[in-house]
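Fold it.
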Amino acid sequence: MYTADTSLPAELNDVFLRCIVSNPTIHDLIFAHSTPATVIRFSWTCKAALLATRSYYRRAYNVDRHLSRYFRDPQAFRTLQARTATLISGSSALQFFDRTCYPESDLDIYTPLQFMREVANWLLSDGYRFIPDDTQPGNLPDALRQLQGYDAGLDTRSLGFYRRRGVLGVYTFYKTTEDDWDAEDRAQPLKVQVTAAARSPAEVIINFHSTCVMNAISHDAAYSLYPHATFESRLALVCPTEGPAPDSALEKYAERGWHLVCERPEAEEPLFPFASGADAETPSIVAREPSFLPGSRWADDHTSWVIPLHPALPLHVRAEAKAAPFASTNWQLAYHLDDDESPCPKMRYCLVRSPLLKHVYLLTDELLLLAVWSALKGVRSGRTVMQRVLDRAKHRQPVDSPR
């Protein structure tokens, strides 16, 4: 509850509550120029401030408005997300959290392999056209047919489809609407890119080129995995990736205001300062941004930023979909020595999949992995598989449950 400041005249306290905190027109302007942490801290000051920030959140983080640019019925798309575990990520999710808009940006969505056909057909029904790249067949059925024989247990690096970890292919769709014209009356079509995830969309997101784009929007919540670094410090930890060097992507986000953390701590500095003694020095990366500490993380832990989406989907959709599998994503940020003996960031996890599970999950907690495998196949075989999982964890190879 708000407590009046007795050092101020009573009328000033009244003005603060009635004319500023309780006026959406005024506090929306203030919040729009405040960082997310500032808005959250303001909500802690009094009940009126809490109500004001909740009201602001419903307007600033309205996902249906965010999607209305691309789809005639945003809730229908979110229902599709709930049914297929499809995620929105990339620059679109970053814009949603940052309350900004990048001109000519597209919508990046990430779909599990088994739901690619359903998602692609939904886009066609919404007026989009499939535009193949130079390596894809000219029509969508043939392009999707390439994926039918894929075995999700294989390493995608051996398939030659698309040189990014966990990615089988990227499919581009365009739609021209009456509202999309530039200053010279040229049509500016909407662009949606669908990434086919070999095993899990979460795996693709965890392996992005830098932490500033490790954000995702599911059907019921938006997740930012490194919010303090991304939106407060405006730092992005650059992570080594497979495939072509992401120089153009990194340059793009540097131009948008993020400082890329590329320098490494000195090799003689301890990688895990919290475990090596009270007098150990913290590596420079960690010193600049605490959220870059090595250790185990969850998509919805205290370091993440999770926004329940408004407006909520109908009750029957929420009851059927329940929580998105992305909420159960568990990974470890570690630092290993690269070729020049300097610590290099690396995301570690194990892929858990089974005929008994609808989705593929990313886990790194040893006890939880043991419990999962034990539940799936029995305690004895669970221990055997658990050891195999841990042995392969260093290389992040997918491990299936025994059949």
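The chain is about 35% helix and 20% strand.
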